[in-house]
Design a protein that fits this description.
This protein is mainly beta and about 190 residues long. About 0% of the residues lie in helices and about 55% in strands.
Length: about 190
Amino acid sequence: MKIAGNAIRPGMVLMYKDKLCLVIKTEHRTPGNLRAFNQVELQDIIGGTKYNDRFSASEMVERVRLEQKAYQYLYEEGESLVFMDSESYEQVNIPKELLGEQLEFLEPNMSVEIESHEGRPIGVTMPETVVMAIRETEPTVKGQTASGSYKPAILENGARVMVPPYLSEGERIVVRIADREYVERAKD
């Protein structure tokens, strides 16, 4: 599907220089005596190369539609991860590097969304949050308040996050996967 250069928005996937590229950031600019343009930062989904380019309103670019399907994580097999299609029970292998830093939060039976282009998996979307137990943290100091300061904690999966000082080992917390931020105590 072709779209105008000024319609490009962050999160879109475009065919740019014969490569699938994710739009990271856009900024609409109107310099003094020149025509307006859209300054776009793109990243090659497969290769990782970043591009910066200008697109005018009259320029047409190819927007790519990705197929998104729900899968369930089963197990690790060498350098790949095995997922099962939730509807057809078909299994698919995905390279570990496709998950990046989110890999530590992947748990057996976790539901994820796999994006693919022409049958080739290109991305895995994890749930927004996950519940984890604190394995190790500094002891609570009497009189420390809940606001202002945070202390480091190591979760059951080995990930490091900053938590409020009143939390202790063994407590279950909700963590936002994208930025590894503490959200709240888990409601069990």
